[in-house]
Each structure stands twice: as structure tokens, then as C-alpha cells.
Amino acid sequence: MLEADVSLKVSKDLIKNIQEKALGQKVIENVQPGQQIIKIVSDELTEILGSHSSELNFKNKPSVFLMCGLQGAGKTTSIAKLAHYCQNTLNKTVSLVSTDLRRPAAIEQLRVLAQKNNIQFIEPSSEDVKDIVQTALNQSEKLLSDILIIDTSGRISTDEELLIELKTIYELAKPQENLLVLDSMMGQQALSVVEAFHQTAPLTGFILTRLDADPRGGVALSAKYQTGLPIRFFGSGENISDFEVFHPDRIASRILGMGDVVSLVEKAQKDFDNKEMESLQAQMMSGKFNMEGMLKQFLQMKKMGGMSGLMSYMPGVGKIKSMMENADFDEKIIDHQIAIIRSMTKQERSDPDILKASRKKRIASGSGRQVHEVNRLLKQFEQTKKMMKQAQKPGFANKIKNLLGGNQMPTIE
Ligand code: GDP
Questions:
Q1: Up-side HSE of residue 122: CA atoms within 13 Å toward CB?
Q2: 139 in a domain, yes or no?
């Protein structure tokens, strides 16, 4: 992770989470333990980065987008790219204004890029940033622009003066989006830059530049982990159209640089789950269902997102699902039941009939639960066993059908 420029602090946190998740996991057939660890790491990265790309906020007309970043991060280029994307892909009209009075060359660069790409450029109206912003707000409204993008000063470092000026502009412009432009190559410095900008003027997201030069993009992970804010776009070259919506799930395997291993483990895991399911089904149907089988069932259920996750795989059971939601079904119960079974000996799991008062007490204290919870689990086990016996009799499907109010028999897709 350090090689991919994920910050040291974030890397340490991640390792702690990964260790917790990895300990106690069963090694899947056909996979090396090391490969399985890589899959766990990849899952953790995907979870942090999120699975959806996020949309820009267009509440007002014009919607104001403030752009900030250090000098050389690719801010001016990104502003032109963003404007071009909004005009050509989202069909919005855009006006640009620059407040970077210290670098006349930066203003000129933006003017040239705007002219070249048919984007409205509002000339700075004075030597005062507040004046410039206010005039641009009025003018873009008159021009009926959908979006006004404001460029701010870029500096070598996050010095005091830069941040004070940014705050002034932020308070005046009240932007819907405040995007920090981050260079993928900036390395370990990224986290302190993110913090400085976010504390001065709350950010709404990031634009990552030069992902073409550093395909790993560990900076994305640090920024997202630290703030919880989305990476909106990334730059993949110097041209105006080298600009893409950021898909977080794709970056996880880039950071690891081990996409192949991840898909290998995914496949093995799927096969493993299918095998487990098949043997569980066979066990259930043979009437040899015991606590070990029940434990497998609970673990499988958890993998599929708990009780509500399991329900979502079944069309036609919306009624039951909403009943369960109303009844505030506690997903933690499954965890407790797993703990109880794990506190049983092998003999107890295969023959729960031997569980009398003293054994139940031992199991309860071993799992940190109460004896009545052990009893409830045993009752549930008996009911499941009974239901399985019934399931083998003809007419069971109709019984369920009636239970669901005559609706179609649910099928698992
Ligand atoms: P600013 O100082 O933050 O405004 O930075 P500029 O927008 O002037 O960009 C600095 C340099 O980086 C320019 O030469 C750009 O062409 C280049 N640049 C910006 N974004 C990207 C990108 O996504 N990929 C590559 N390869 N170069 C980029």
C-alpha cells in the first residue's frame, strides 16, 4: 500500500481492519492462503472506496463549483476538462472565472482553454477577489449559465494566505460543489493537503489528476478514507477529453495491482459456497440434520447479508420482508446463535439431545449468552428439523403458498 502511495496512517488502520477480518477465516480449497489474504485486502479497499460513482450537485442555477488545489496539481486543466464534460456529456452551459490574481499566466491559460473549447470565460472585473466573484455570480446568472466554475489561487504549499483567501471566496460564493484537485503522484503529502483544504472550506469531493502517469492511485484511498468524500473524476491525459467519471470499485484492484488473484479467489469462493450448499441440502434432506448443519446455515446466511439480505434474493416475499422490518428483526441474533453453537463440543453438535441443564449452563457462559437463549436455539433447531421432515412430504409447497396469501410460490433466482 505504501508503494501505491496510500498514506502511512491510513495503511496502518487498514492493516488492523484486515487482520481482524482475516483471523479465523477458513482457507478455501484450490487457493493458497496468501491469495485468500489478497482477496480480503481487496474487499476491504472496495468497502472503503465505495461501490458507486457519485453525481455532481446541480441544485441552483447557476450551480457554483469551486475548484481548489496546489499549484501544478492540474487544476486549470481539470477546470477546462470538467467544463467540457458538463457541456458535452451533461448538456449544461458553463461559465468560467479565475481568481488567481497572483499568476496572470494561470488566468491566461484558462482563457485560452475556454476559447479553444467554446466555453464562456468571464474576465476578472478588478484586482479584488471578492469583486471578481460577485461580478461573476451576477454575470453568469444573466448569461443563464447552468454552472459557474470558479478557479482559485494555486500555491506551492498550503500557506495561510492561500487558505484565508479560499475561505473568503467560499463564504461569498456558497458553492454547491467544492472540489479539491489532487495529483495522483503527490504521494504521502496528500493527507495533510486534504486536511488543510477541508478544514478551511468544507470539500464535497475530489478530482484526481495524472492517473495515466501513476496507475495505482493510492492517493484516492487516503483522501476517501480520511474524509469519506467521493472521488468524482480522474484525469487520464493532457487532452481536454482525457477525463473520466471515477469508478471506485475499479481502483481497488489497481492499488493492489493483483486483479487476477482477486478474481481467482472469487471463483474458488463461489465454487466452495456451492459445494457447501449442496452438502448442506443433502444433509437436510437425508434427515441427518444436526447443529453442525445449523451452524453452516447461519454462516451462509451471514455471507448473503443476514436475514434481510437473504430475503432480497427471493422475489415474491416482499410481504414477509416488510413484516420483519416492522418487527425490527435483530440481525445480531444470528451472531449470538453462532457463538452458542461454537461453544458446543463436537458430540453435542452432532447429538443435541444430550444437552441437559449443566451442559446448557456451560455453553451459555462459554458463549457469553443466557441459558434461555440456548433453549431458544434448541427449540428453533427442533422446529427446523420438523419442517424439513414435512418438506419431504407431498403437498408442502401448497401449504407455503397458502401461508403467503395464495401468491405464487417464491423461487430463488
Ligand atoms: P495547475 O497549476 O494546478 O493549474 O496545473 P495545470 O492545469 O497547469 O497542469 C500542470 C501540467 O499537468 C500541465 O502540463 C497539464 O497538461 C498536466 N496535466 C494535468 N492533468 C493531467 C492528467 O490527468 N494527466 C497528465 N498526463 N497530465 C496532466
A1: 28
A2: yes
